[in-house]
Model the fold of this input.
Amino acid sequence: MIGYQYHEQEQWQEAIKWYEKSLSLNPDYIVVLYRKGYSHFKLKQVREALQAFERCRALWHALPEGPLKEKDKKNCVKAAYHQAEVLIENPYKVEGAFEGAIRLLGEAIQLDPQNHNAHYLLGKALLENKEAEQAIAAFRESDRLQPNQDYVLDRWGQALAELKRYEEAEQVYQRIPPSQRKGYVLRNLGEMQFQRGEHQRAISTLKQALQKDSRSHYGHYYLGLCYQKMSEWGLAVRELHEAIRLRQKNHNVPFPEAQKVIDEILSEHPKATNAPQTTSTRQRGKVAKYIKDKGFGFIQGDNGAQIFFHFKDFPRDEKIEVGMWVEYEEGIGDKGPKAIKAKRVYSDKRKA
Done:
């Protein structure tokens, strides 16, 4: 229980110390083995996490049928789920990682068929293992049990796109409201639009993705590929260079695919490096609602999403009116995204 108190405070190393003391007194303590494995998992200690989860499951399966086994079933399910999660997140450290994860998740689902996250993770493992058809079935079941989870719909859309079933994938993505599309959803949607040859549409989507998460090297990479297809050589080189920089900075690995495209562009268009090196993150929209006495309202962006604003984020002498068109940048306020550095862009209420 001392270990569990540290566990609740996410002090994983301290929790492990006390879990090990507990296990020295009772090596077959199933719940402690599960929690020890989870603590190692949070510390990214792959080998130790896998060992603890494996022993937890083996002990549970060895129990005779009865109340004790039924009581500890949930710990076996969670151990199988997180053991699979470790394998999926570390496929290069364990041979046959995805096959192992699929087997473990099958076990978790057999014990708890209503676990929608287990169905989702199974779909993810199947998709990584190039079994897109089976992945789609797993995502569909996860969605049936817990509808409209954005991470499930996103992976489901990716699986359909993998099979080039783009119309179905588009329908799945449409179930995620524009205002609720996180950066990774927009990035994957933009990648799909690029694959379909909808380069202008993909550029718009990828820009929205980068406004939400500018650190995504894949977002910049696919934006660069879109610009290449549109013969915007300078913009393509700029985005590809940014993709390389971010991948090196965040993951300490090179990005040879991006460098290859840069080399191809510069071999035919050597002046592409003269393109401006800045990207405007400003968006445009219309004031949809303004509560003057409270000083805040909402802007309807060109992308269809609404974003909160406060009058202090406009110039001091700006007269804010419903219907006026504005430019703004997206920032983060106390309660989520908000418009910042906003200003009127047209003297009347008509869109140019």
